[in-house]
Structures are given as structure tokens and as C-alpha cells.
Write a structure and sequence with these properties.
mainly alpha, disordered C terminus, two-stranded antiparallel sheet, 296 residues
Length: 296
């Protein structure tokens, strides 16, 4: 029987894992809420951000600069993907299934491009984890504190943006009905473009903290986390930013706590299981309502 100490350690690790998942899930849910496009290239955006941080770390040992590069790369690739690939298909009246398949194709192209440039081997991305701090019975490293802090900062940013800015109101309008928002004078195309930019930037933060926490980057690092992010989004209510936070906490904690009782290889199985249970018993997610409104 695992000791209580091991369980408490797992809860501390779960908080860090939940923070990583939360950042990636909020980005995915925010983008989906406004565009209604399930982006399966989301993991590759995180991967590119991780490699951007790796390249920056080889020249400048500055964590803020590495995070900035990750944000810029994530934002640029997300914006370019929408502008150059998705939007032309939308203008021709393409259905969501076509866009869904297109994001899968983009995912494969980006993943193999990274593989071509960097090779398939794992590349070390080490950041001094610092000392371990004790919070009651829980332990968390300085790197873990940075990850949790980044998650809190992203959540506060999204909350303020959605609730207290004109752009947040425009997002809610586009989320409800793109056509009605246009009639009301909202520039829906601009809102969609900026949403992709914002979601990509947040995905860049997720890519950075994921790479820094694992301590290495590979061409599949983001894609490997994609199913976990989707699981958190579905559990919390896909397309709902606040639901994404709750879903990430449930998935992250469950994965780490399960590792106390099961081999660590079963973490993804636990995420899959929670995803299936959510689809069976609560398909709309924990925060489901009769009308889907992701940003409210």
C-alpha cells in the first residue's frame, strides 16, 4: 500500500501537471469557442514553441526572453494557419469536417518538418529547477512554482479579457452567432484572427512550460499531450474557458495520483477513461448548459 507521503507528493506533481494542461486547454477552448474549428495542430504549435525556446536558450540564458519567443512563435503559427489555410476554405463554404481534416494534415506537416530539421532524438532543454519548497505536507520546485504561476497569470488574463474588455464582448457575440455579430457591427473576421493569435500565444506558453518541466523537446512532445488537453476540454465542457480550468485540474490530478497505485505508463489511459466517462454521462462537460457559450 503506497505511503501517505507518496500520495501527497503525487498531489503536488498533479498541481504542476494540471497547470500545464490548463494553459494548453484554455488556449484550445478559447479558439474553439469563437471559430468552432477543432484544431488538431494545437500540439504542434506547442512543439514549435518549445523548440523556439530551446534555440533561444542556446544564445541567451534568459527565461523571460525564452517565454517571449515561445509566445511569438505560437501566436504567429496559429495566426498564419488560420489566415493562409483555414480562412480560404471557409470563404469557399467548407464544412467543419473539411476543416477538421485540414488541421490534421497541418499537424502532420508541421511535425514532420520539425523532424526533418532537428531529427527524431530528444534534445535536452534544462532549466535550473531551483530548490524544493514545502507548503504544508506538499513539495514543489521552483520550476513547478513558475509553471503554476504561469497558469494563474493566463487564467487571470483570460478572465479580465472576456469579462471587462470590448474585445471580450465581441468574442462572446461571435461565439453566439457570427452572422448576428456582423449585423450588430462586429468585425467578426478580425475577432477570429485576433482569437487565433491570442490562442496561439497561450499555446506557446504551454509549449514552453511543458518542455521546461520535462527537461527536453522532441518532435512529438506537443502531440503527445494533445489527447490529454482534449480530454480536459471535454471533461470541463469543450469551448468553455472556465470549464477548461476545472477539466485540467481533474485530469492532471487523476493522472498523477493514479501513478501512485498504477504504473506511470497508465497515466494516458486514465485520461482516456475520464474522457470516455465524460462523453457517456456528461457529454456537454461539467459546466454544460443548454446553450453553448464558451466565453461566458
Amino acid at each position: 500500500m503506497p505511503a501517505v507521503h507518496d500520495l501527497l507528493l503525487a498531489i503536488g506533481f498533479g498541481l504542476v501537471t494540471s497547470s500545464i494542461i490548463a494553459i494548453g486547454t484554455v488556449a484550445l477552448s478559447l479558439q474553439y469557442s469563437v471559430t468552432n474549428v477543432p484544431n488538431f495542430a494545437h500540439g504542434e504549435i506547442m512543439t514549435i514553441a518549445g523548440y523556439g525556446a530551446l534555440q533561444t536558450s542556446r544564445s541567451v540564458h534568459s527565461i523571460p526572453l525564452q517565454i517571449l519567443v515561445s509566445i511569438v512563435l505560437g501566436a504567429f503559427f496559429a495566426w498564419a494557419m488560420n489566415r493562409l489555410l483555414l480562412q480560404p476554405f471557409l470563404n469557399r463554404g467548407a464544412r467543419n469536417l473539411v476543416l477538421f481534416v485540414l488541421t490534421i494534415a497541418i499537424s502532420l506537416i508541421l511535425q514532420n518538418t520539425v523532424l526533418l530539421i532537428y531529427g527524431g532524438q530528444s534534445r535536452a532543454f534544462t532549466i535550473a529547477s531551483g530548490s524544493v519548497h514545502h507548503y504544508g505536507p506538499f513539495q514543489i520546485s521552483s520550476m513547478g512554482e513558475l509553471t503554476v504561476g504561469a497558469a494563474v497569470a493566463v487564467m487571470l488574463l483570460i478572465h479580465v479579457l472576456l469579462k471587462y474588455t470590448a474585445f471580450g464582448k465581441a468574442q462572446r457575440a461571435v461565439s453566439d452567432s457570427r452572422e448576428l455579430s456582423r449585423v450588430s457591427g462586429v468585425n467578426a473576421d478580425r475577432v477570429v484572427a485576433v482569437t487565433w493569435l491570442l490562442a496561439g500565444g497561450i499555446a506557446g506558453v504551454a509549449g514552453y512550460v511543458l518542455a521546461a518541466t520535462i527537461g527536453s523537446v522532441t518532435p512529438t512532445i506537443g502531440n503527445a499531450y494533445l489527447i490529454v488537453i482534449f480530454a480536459a476540454a471535454v471533461v470541463g465542457g469543450i469551448g468553455r474557458a472556465y470549464g477548461a480550468m476545472i477539466g485540467a485540474l481533474i485530469i492532471g490530478m487523476s493522472m498523477e495520483i493514479s501513478a501512485v497505485y498504477l504504473p506511470s505508463e497508465y497515466k494516458t489511459v486514465v485520461a482516456f477513461s475520464l474522457l470516455v466517462l465524460a462523453l457517456i454521462f456528461r457529454p456537454g462537460g461539467i459546466l454544460s448548459t443548454k446553450v453553448r457559450n464558451a466565453v461566458d
